[in-house]
Amino acid sequence: xxxxxxxxxxxxxxxxxxxxxxxxxxxxxxxxxxxxxxxxxxxxxxxxxxxxxxxxxxxxxxxxxxxxxxxxxxxxxxxxxxxxxxxxxxxxxxxxxxxxxxxxxxxxxxxxxxxxxxxx
Length: 120
Hints:
The chain is mainly α. It has helices spanning 13-21, 25-49, 65-78, 98-110; strands at residues 53-56, 88-91. The protein contains 4 helices and 2 strands.
């Protein structure tokens, strides 16, 4: 767990990413560890259900290449089966709002609200 703060005192995912971009070795190690864990989980999921794309959302996705570069590198270590090896990892287009939008969509679907606002 990252205990230090970024140069501006921010210990959030964005702050740790800023520290990693500035070359902080502890922050870089934190993202390397997170990337390794995510790669293992994505590879396992790809093996079980043959996904083609894994989308990473939330605040951590805002780290950009600080996270995605080591994630893609480690994914090759874990996703070794032919049908899992080509899985693509992308940041969520909705960024940190992805979970909220997904929850709202699930609720709308559950309660039959799709198309109500549009009069459909």
